[in-house]
């Protein structure tokens, strides 16, 4: 008789992965990264346990959006005060904070729960091609898009 294996907290060793997203499409890259953060790429994936790896994303300012999405899609924010709603296009946000666009795309593909927030903490996004995580010896993550 076979029994289903469920991973426990602390049983899984989490690796560090590195992705250079230069020239990649935003949504397709975000789905692959979210899969690795959740741990769905592992055979011992367990839905209620964080079995995913750490992911480092570099060159976030060189991400690509197809069509007119950069000009037409809007990022809304609200301060909580009357008249405090602001809308900016993705192209405007990419000029001053491209890390936010990439992190937001991945965040929306993770579970909307306490576990999803824990998974998001394992995502590190950087504007340029350097990152401060060389000591963790990240292995390259191949994304076939």
Structure explained in plain terms:
The protein is of the alpha/beta class and about 140 residues long. It has one domain: Ribosomal Protein L13p, Chain: A. The protein has five helices and six strands; from the N terminus they run E-H-E-H-E-E-H-H-H-E-E. A hairpin with a 6-residue loop joins strand 3 (about 75-80) and strand 4. It starts with 15 loop residues before the first strand and ends in a 5-residue tail after the last strand. The relative contact order is 0.25.
Low-confidence stretches: none
Helical fraction: 25-40%
Helix count, DSSP H or I runs of 4 or more residues: 5
Task: Using the alpha-carbon principal axes, give the shape.
Answer: globular
- CATH class bucket: Alpha Beta
Largest sheet: 4 strands, parallel
Structural class: alpha/beta
Q: Tell me the number of strands.
A: 6
**H/E series, N to C?**
EHEHEEHHHEE
Mean pLDDT: 94
CATH architecture: Alpha-Beta Complex
Summed up, the domain count is 1
Query: Strand arrangement, largest sheet?
Result: 5-2-1-6
Cα-based radius of gyration, to the nearest Å: 17 Å
Question: In CATH, what is the homologous superfamily?
Answer: Ribosomal protein L13
What is the terminal separation in angstroms? 40 Å
The CATH topology, please?
A: Ribosomal Protein L13p, Chain: A
Strand content: 15-25%
């Amino acid at each position: 008789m076979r029994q289903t294996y469920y991973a426990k907290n602390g049983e899984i060793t989490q690796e560090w992965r590195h992705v250079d997203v230069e020239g990649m499409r935003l949504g397709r890259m975000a789905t692959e990264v979210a899969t690795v953060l959740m741990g769905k790429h592992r055979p011992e994936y367990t839905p209620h346990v964080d079995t995913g790896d750490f992911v480092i994303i570099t060159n976030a300012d060189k991400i690509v959006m197809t069509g007119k999405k950069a000009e037409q899609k809007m990022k809304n924010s609200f301060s909580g005060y009357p008249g405090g709603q602001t809308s900016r296009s993705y192209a405007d946000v990419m000029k001053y904070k491209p890390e936010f666009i990439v992190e937001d795309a991945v965040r929306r593909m993770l579970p909307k729960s306490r576990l999803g927030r824990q998974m998001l903490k394992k995502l590190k996004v950087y504007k340029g091609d350097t990152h401060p995580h060389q000591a963790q010896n990240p292995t390259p993550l191949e994304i076939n898009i």
